[in-house]
């Protein structure tokens, strides 16, 4: 594997493996184990090919009428209203137990019995 005569050979070798790994359906680690390849090298070359393809892609022409469409939607924030959420118990140590509703009263009573 390390007997490459040129960078072009090395790039070609790794490009084939990056494509084959992607098509295999295996995880990158499994593919590398099966083909006895260094995982970090596969990741490195994959990033190299991803970077190259990203720089080659030409932007799409704007869609007709797209300039009239806002790109962001307005967001309206409302004041958060705190609704009563049951009772709250403050212990002498300062620990607060809150949010006790009718559904949780039995659990709260069991907890207080243990204290």
Pick out its properties.
115 residues; mainly alpha; two-stranded antiparallel sheet; 4 helices; 8% strand
Quick recap of the structure?
With 115 residues, this protein is mainly alpha-helical. The protein has helices spanning 7-24, 28-35, 39-56, 105-114, and strands at residues 87-90, 96-100. Helix 1 (7-24) packs across helix 3 (39-56).
Strand-helix topology:
Blueprint: H1 7-24, H2 28-35, H3 39-56, E1 87-90, E2 96-100, H4 105-114
Antiparallel strand pairs: 1-2
Distance between the termini: 68 Å
Order of helices and strands: HHHEEH
Mean pLDDT: 78
- For the secondary structure, the number of strands is 2
The number of helical elements comes to 4
| Largest sheet descriptor | 2 strands, antiparallel
- The backbone outline, from C-alpha atoms, is elongated
User: What spatial order of strands do you see in the largest sheet?
Assistant: 1-2
Using only C-alpha atoms, the radius of gyration works out to: 30 Å
Provide the helix percentage.
40-55%
Poorly predicted sequence stretches spanning 5 or more consecutive residues: none
Give the strand content.
5-15%
Question: What structural class is derived from the secondary structure elements?
Answer: mainly alpha
Task: Provide an overview of this structure.
It is built from 4 helices and 2 strands. With about 120 residues, the protein is mainly alpha-helical. Among the domains are: about 5-55; about 85-115, no CATH class. Helix 1 (about 5-25) crosses helix 3 (about 40-55). The mean pLDDT is about 80.
């Amino acid at each position: 594997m390390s007997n490459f005569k040129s960078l072009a050979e090395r790039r070609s070798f790794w490009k084939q493996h990056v494509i084959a790994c992607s098509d295999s359906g295996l995880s990158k680690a499994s593919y590398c184990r099966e083909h006895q390849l260094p995982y970090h090298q596969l990741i490195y070359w994959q990033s190299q090919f991803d970077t190259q393809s990203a720089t080659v892609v030409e932007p799409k022409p704007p869609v007709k009428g797209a300039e009239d469409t806002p790109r962001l939607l307005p967001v309206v924030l409302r004041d958060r209203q705190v609704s009563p959420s049951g009772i709250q118990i403050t212990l002498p140590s300062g620990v607060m137990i809150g949010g006790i509703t009718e559904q949780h009263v039995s659990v709260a009573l069991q907890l207080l019995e243990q204290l």
